[in-house]
Design goal:
Blueprint: H1 57-67, E1 74-78, H2 79-91, E2 98-101, H3 108-116, E3 120-122, E4 126-128, E5 131-133, H4 136-145, E6 148-154, H5 166-175, E7 181-185, E8 207-212, E9 224-228, H6 231-238, H7 248-257, H8 260-285, E10 290-293, E11 300-305, H9 308-317, E12 323-324, E13 334-338, H10 342-352
Parallel strand pairs: 2-3, 2-6, 6-7, 7-8
Antiparallel strand pairs: 1-9, 4-5, 8-9, 10-11, 11-13, 12-13
Helix pairs in contact: 2-3, 8-10, 9-10
Amino acid sequence: MSVLDLLRPDLRAFAGYTSARKTGVSGRIWLNANESPWANPGDAGAHCNRYPAPQPEPLRQALAELYEVHPEQLLIGRGSDEAIDLLVRALCRPERDAVVTASPVFGMYAVSARLQNAPLIDIPLVDGPQGFAPDLAAIGDAALAGGAHLVFLCSPGNPTGEAIALADIAALASRLSDKAVVVVDEAYGEFSDLPSATALLGAYPNLAVLRTLSKAHALAAARIGTLIAAPELIAALRNCQAPYPLPTPCVDLALAGLAPAALAQTRERIKQIRAERERLSAALEILPGVRRVYPSQGNFLLVRFDDAQVAFDRLLAAGVVVRDQRAALQLHDALRISIGSPEENEAVIAALSNNKDATA
């Protein structure tokens, strides 16, 4: 059985829209896309009068090298959000093929399922002495019983911070072989101690991995996300993608951010964030009113408070904006605090110490 057998039957022979750039032809004078022959007066050299390549080859090569995979395993899109949406739309028939999640977790999995009218099965994370963890046995049971075509695992988890061992991911992918695609969202993977699940792709065709340049690479506004999966699944999803998903200025920015000098600086910043994560965690743990600081493999901390509203208000009064998690399952008393610069982290500590002079 091929992973393509999990696609919606009506999409298995779907060729998608053939855009002017998808045809692969080249020439000196471009008159095939009804573009303006002149650049916009405000265009400072980006040549935005021309449509961009759907999957720019220089960026594919750079990302393949970054993630140590083959270019044909990559689909580049508008952040991880687009890839999540494409997976749900391509693999799940409305009211039939389910999506499995493990809350509390990134909300776009459930949003995409809702928009597709795909059944959503949620198996809550288990909050234990070592922090949150997914019940992978229960997730597998639910996926098989519920006819799921997609299982989303977030590793490191957002907002909970846990990472999932490769052996556990492999076991679930093996169990769901020919039944469902297991998607490992590694948006925060650069901050984790554990290796990437991309190492498992060769052995498990029903495994996919999400990566992004938004977090560690500081390119959130560029909206460059990558789905890494079996080449045949990537080819099928490309046919479902919008014709021109990657704006030229964003591609240029991503390429500049993936140049050797920029990558070297990014690696140093990742080290600093990891060190600051531990420093901030230790400082928060001894503050009055802090009930629990969860261990984290991401660039954030999940913190429970005796009174989360008071903590939120103190931070906001100091100009510090954090993520209120109290509406999420199991997190009625929790805030998620991103790891900032040393100065920004000091502002967090000062505000929660009730230092009225704290500023952001």
